[in-house]
Amino acid sequence: MFFDTDLRKKILFFIIIGFFFVLVFQLYQMQILENISYSEKSSENSVKEYLINAPRGTIFDRNFNVLVSNKPIYTVELIPANYSKENNPKIEKIFNLEDGYINELLEKYRSYSSYLPRRIKRNIEFQSLVWLEENSEKLNGLEYIVDLQRDYPYGIMGSHIFGYLREISADKLRNYSEEYQMGDLIGSQGIEKTYEDILRGEKGVQYYLVDSQQKKIGKYLNGAKDIPTTKGNDLVLSIDGPTQKKAEELFENKRGALVAIQPATGEIIAFVSSPQFDLNKLSSVTSRDEWAKLQTDTTKPLFNRATMSIYSPGSTIKPLEALIALENGVVDENFTVNCQGGYQYGNRFFKCTHVHGKTDLIKSIEKSCNTYYYQLFLKIGFENWSNFMQRFGFGHLTGVDIGDETSGILPTVEYYNRRLGKGKWHEGMLISLGIGQGEFATTPIQLAQYTALIANNGITKTPHFVKGYIRNDDNAFVPLEYSDLKVDVSKKTFDIVKEGMYKVVHGAGTAQHIKIPGIEIAGKTGTAENPHGEDHALFIAFAPFENPEIAVAVMVENVGYGGTHAAPIVKEIIKSFLMPNEQKNMTIISAGIKGE
After folding, report:
1. What's the pTM?
2. How many CA atoms lie within 13 A of 183 on its CB side?
3. 62, 154 contact by CB (below 8 A)
4. What are the angstrom distances between the C-alpha of 268 and each of 46, 203, 251, 501?
5. Are 233 and 466 in contact (CB under 8 A)?
6. Residue 241 has what pLDDT?
7. Which of 19, 208, 464, 526 is an S-S bond match for 538, by CB 3.0 to 4.6 Å?
8. What CA–CA distance (Å, rounded) separates 264 from 548?
């Protein structure tokens, strides 16, 4: 037999001894040398990962006043795998949720892991938090986290500037699954949406030891493996906080819009669409009732009138028509008409606001003579008029960096051929375009951009809110670049037109009541006809006259004349921005000047 010899017995002995030593070594290695590693692996079954939302970047005004920041809140989360739906009625009542809300939420995200949390209520009240703590043993799968919510410490509403955050939709989540998770907030409208990638930051991770009920029992490895959050970059806006606040005060209980731009840079100094809405009500989960109330409000607070509403520009467009005529050599500054209260064309009489008598180009701007511009429009020619209007931005989006915008309506030959039929219209039917009426419609931001171009002799940049951002890794300021907008018009032409606008305020014009001691203002009143009620009041202006720092366009709905209702608002805005150290709480008194 094989085992009969001593040699064979020795070989077998050494084989057994070898296996024994290998086994002992492996046990030593597992128990002593790799004990920590295996301990960590065995504990992974009781370690839970918690994602921590990163603070969004702070939003500053041009002087580094904090306009939008973050504040801590408590948010309730639900883990479907550990949660019993029998608690739904109680939870919905305690946290003031609509009946059926939890089931709807679970159904909405049913395709995702049942171990991923669903956020059911942000910014819970302290009493609700206490109740949750007291009943935590009976509410498996329900917990709270410290979360962050947008805060507006400066007291500016800015609802159409800042925009708001909303919970990311299921559809969008499919496309951005690496950057976002269920329940995450994402910029919706305004600055928050346009600059989402700059503002949002990066999530952190915390690891906790949990018991069999998934309750936290302590930090894992004392937090040694936690990953800290990375705060979003801070934005620096061009908005001037005090001037923005003044603009919002001036538009209280009014409908309309205001846009103030720095002519040389395109930076937006103040921006109002009124009425506004309270961003604090949208900073956490908005109830259906609250959202429905906003959407059905007849004053349309969600609608951005400054970029989306279109109005006839009225007489605010007359300086540009004068510029077109001069630059094209159609007339010179000495061209005159005899205004007897209107202009007869064929069998129709087009009215003027007054009998102005002999009127030259500068006086036509100063006195806002319709008769002059009926005739000037015909001399310019419709096609030439339309082409030049496009060069000043009308009929096109400005490209402002808050998203929603409309291009307005700039009639062209193609427009009338399509609307009325080729050969079925003639220039005589379009005379009202010469005074900014008819089918011509603009947005307030287009009027502000046009005013900036006039003020700065045909050179500006795309209107924008954001000057740049502060990079969070090295605290360096990174400026953003914007496209140039340039219109090739001679300085002489601009000078003539601006002289007429100067006399609107400092001569015997339609806005002489808005003079500010020490500041020379150039402007133009306008009244947009409204077939559905009171006319809309408009005013455009820039100041100081010699080296303009601000260009403003104001539109107030359904109040009447621009000189009476819009011009005083512009006065206060110019005063606020150019004279920040003076008292700016003077009451605006209507001057009662009629005609524009």
Report:
1. 0.85
2. 21
3. no
4. 54, 32, 18, 22
5. no
6. 97
7. 526
8. 8
Contacts of 519 (CB under 8 A, 6+ apart): 543, 544, 574, 575, 578, 579
Residue 375, SS3?
helix
Longest dimension (CA), the chain: 141
Residues 437, 442, 444, 448, Cα dihedral to 10°: -100
CA angle 168-169-171, nearest 5°? 130
Buried b (16+ CB within 10 A) or exposed e, 217-244: eeebeeeeebeebebbbbbbbbbbbbbb
Domains of the chain: 48-237 (3.90.1310.10), 241-578 (3.40.710.10)
What DSSP string describes 377-427? HHHH-HHHHHHHHHHTTTTS----TTS-----B---HHHHHHHH-TTS--G
Dump pLDDT digits (tens) for 125-177: 888 888 888 888 788 888 888 888 999 999 999 999 999 998 888 888 888 77
d(CA 448, CA 303): 19
Contact 88, 154 (CB under 8 A): no
534 within 8 A of 561, measured Cβ to Cβ = no
> Could you give the angle at the alpha carbon of 588 between the alpha carbons of 582 and 590, nearest 5°?
150
Q: Which residues are bridge partners to 274 per DSSP?
A: 256
Beta-bridged to residue 556, according to DSSP, are 256, 537
